Amino acid sequence: MSRVIATYNIKGGVGKTSAAVNLAYLAARDGHRTLLWDLDPQAASTYLFRIRPKLKGGSRRLVEARSEVGELIKGTDFPRLELLPADFSYRHMDLALDHFKHPTRRLARVLAPLQDEYDFIFLDCPPSISLVSESVFETADALLVPIIPATLSSRTFDQLSRLVGQVRDGGPQVLAFFSMVDVRKSLHREVMARVRAAYPGLMLGASVPSADEVERMGEERTVVEEMAPGGRASLAYQALWWDVRRRLRTQ
Amino acid sequence: MDDEELLPPPGMSGTAAIRALADALTPDALTLAETRFAETVRVYLDTFDGRLGAAGLAAVHTRDQPGSPSGRLAVVDAATGAEQAGQPWPTGDGPLLAVELEPGPARAALLPIVDVRALLALAELDVQATAFAVRDDLGKTVARIALEHARMRATGEALAARLRLQGVRGYDRETARIAGRARELGFTVARRPLVEDAVVADGGSPGGTSSKVGVELLANQRSDAAAAAVLRRLLEVIEANLDGSIADLDAEFLHDLRVAVRRSRAVLRELKTVFPPRELGHFRAELKWLQGITGPARDHDVYVLEFDAMRELVPAGIRDDLDPVMRVLKDRRELAHRTMVRELRSERMMRLRREWDAFLEELVAAPLDERPQAQQAIGELAGMRIAKVYRRIRKMGRAIGPDSPAEEYHEIRKKGKELRYLLELFGTPLFGAETVKPMIKSLKSLQDVLGRHQDREVQQATLRGIAEQVSGMPGRTAALMAMGVLLEHLGQDEIATRGEFAEQFAEFTSKERRAQVKDVFA
């Protein structure tokens, strides 16, 4: 059985794709068979792996399970790490899902045949509240939520509370981490301390700094570990991966 | 798309082949980039009987340098070299038992196939491998090519350069295109895996050494000729397993050797009227001796191999208390092996091998006056014997009850083995596998129950026998108490097998089986 981890936040530009790509890479490097599903029509993680964002038949065909999902998967340049690419048509995925009687169960149905093929499945989610995100809540074992400690603290709190509320009992485990952290800023340090105090079980200890390497990923089209091994960002993602694995509920 | 191993066109070097392929791929907007170069020592391993090869696999141990302490053990597809599982494996010297590997993917892949058999080195190569990535216009790797130059480590003899083409998931079209371009350039798909090239270059023959008998017989063949053919093959099996038994590479060598001896003795006993009586007596005695001197070593192999299963019989909390028992058994096993090795290297053993071979060679030419059935058709004689032994077992079994002494169960088991050997050695080639199979299957179920009965009996006796020695060791009190629990379970299981025997015996002697024996053999 694979464990499904979704990087999720309503807001864009908070480091979801970076987390999904780098953690999936580390999982594969640890020897786990790993799949990354790029659900975002902007196709950022697909682009990072130099794969063409195109699915035969688009999202419609995929969620209708009319084609073997395995035939759409592409190997990345890294051993054991494979990608289910994004497609421009994902922007209409809500519509495609809405056709079904139980629309929120569709993503799980798509992934079902892959359960024995992968140890970890990462979902890189689009920023929104939609049928797609509801489907992700139904499918994922854990939601990994990046939070920038720069936003007004009250909004950060709201966002987290809403999310925890949305995830009903038996839903995915919510794990949040601070992203794009600049420890030189006192605002960041304050927000981090207050959020940690308010949500002791929720916040992961590891956080990802705001670093050049992370921004350069898009240009170099690779993961930080390949680009700047041993750098600040690379160490941060390793710590984050360690922390996530440690905290994942055992099934 | 499956991986492929390609050979460059005749006369073209590996390096030139790569260059030619790179040029040919330019119109397809595919580029070749070298990603890695490595010189390694590669050792191919398989079991003595070639189990991995038979499964289309090979075990490969790779080291950076000869004698380098770091290394990796991988299970690869023999035809394409594609890795299926791998893990670090530092040592790489001497025989390798899968069960002794650290838990890991390679161990998990190997164990179900090789079981207790040791992995032995088949061939040792020096390999220069250059890895290339084939990239598309986005710089994405769509396939990988490994160019390998291998030399026999011992002789320096070069084997043909190979290009291994590995696809990347989701890029089948590109891989097919590369394979197509290679074919246009005159590349051919390698007929034989590299490991087999290496084994052949080493003067060996791929496939391992089988302990199967499989001698083909004709129903109207003279019985003495048929018996001699089967016995000579059995002698080959004994010879093939002798060195491995002496070197103690794994427990299977001795086991196969002993089965061959036991089968030989069964043939002598069941077809005794085709042999001259004086020699028959001599070789029966000598083979009995051989069986005897190898018995204790085999028994102790079994104790050690089955110790874990035996541990499972006692509650989890006291399993570790049995550790002193294992230590005693291992010591005794060592001793039994040393004693056996002395005998296997003795003059008596040499003489037996020599004389037995010569005797079988000349059997057909020996005078016929004291061998009344030597010229009888083997189809007739073997059928008669099979029917007779079957009836004998039936008679013995009917006299056995749940309270009979263990000795009687043991006797019927020995007779059952004899029948099984007759069926396998003569029944299958003469009456057809399809006819004989259901009988062997029924017999096997019966023998399994009897075997377990015997094992339990022997295990109890062994435990009682070593109690004295354990009582002088640290942790003795707990060990002796755990042994008591174990004895209790073994005794109960022995009683259970007696009930199961009745059931299996009823099947084995059902009306249907009896009719079959009568129709086919009598």
Average per-residue pLDDT of chain A, rounded, comes to 87
Q: Give the proportion of residues in helices of chain A.
A: 40-55%
Q: Give the overall form of chain B.
A: globular
Number of helices of chain A: 11
Helix content of chain B: 55-70%
Largest sheet of chain B: 10 strands, antiparallel
Written account of the structure:
The complex is a heterodimer of chains A (251) and B (522). Chain A is an alpha/beta fold and 251 residues long. Chain A is built from 11 helices and 7 strands. Chain A has a 7-stranded mixed beta sheet with strand order 3-4-2-5-1-6-7, sandwiched between helices. In chain A, helix 1 crosses helix 11. The radius of gyration of chain A is 17 Å and the shape is globular. Helix content of chain B is 56%, strand content 15%. Chain B is built from 16 helices and 10 strands. In chain B, strands 1, 2, 3, 4, 5, 6, 7, 8, 9 and 10 form a 10-stranded antiparallel beta sheet that branches. Chain B is globular. The model of chain B has no long low-confidence stretch (mean pLDDT 91). At the A-B interface, strand 3 of A face loops of B.
How do the strands and helices of this protein lay out in sequence?
The complex is a heterodimer of chains A (251) and B (522).
Chain A: E1 3-7, H1 16-29, E2 34-38, H2 44-48, H3 58-63, E3 74-75, E4 81-84, H4 93-98, H5 106-111, E5 120-124, H6 131-139, E6 142-147, H7 153-166, E7 173-178, H8 186-198, H9 212-220, H10 224-227, H11 232-247
Parallel strand pairs in A: 1-5, 1-6, 2-4, 2-5, 6-7
Antiparallel strand pairs in A: 3-4
Helix pairs in contact in A: 1-11
Chain B: E1 4-7, H1 14-25, E2 31-46, H2 51-54, E3 57-63, E4 72-77, E5 83-88, E6 96-97, H3 105-114, E7 118-135, E8 141-152, E9 162-167, H4 172-184, E10 188-189, H5 194-201, H6 223-247, H7 251-270, H8 277-305, H9 307-311, H10 323-344, H11 347-362, H12 378-398, H13 406-431, H14 433-470, H15 476-508, H16 511-520
Antiparallel strand pairs in B: 1-9, 1-10, 2-3, 2-7, 3-4, 4-5, 6-7, 7-8, 8-9
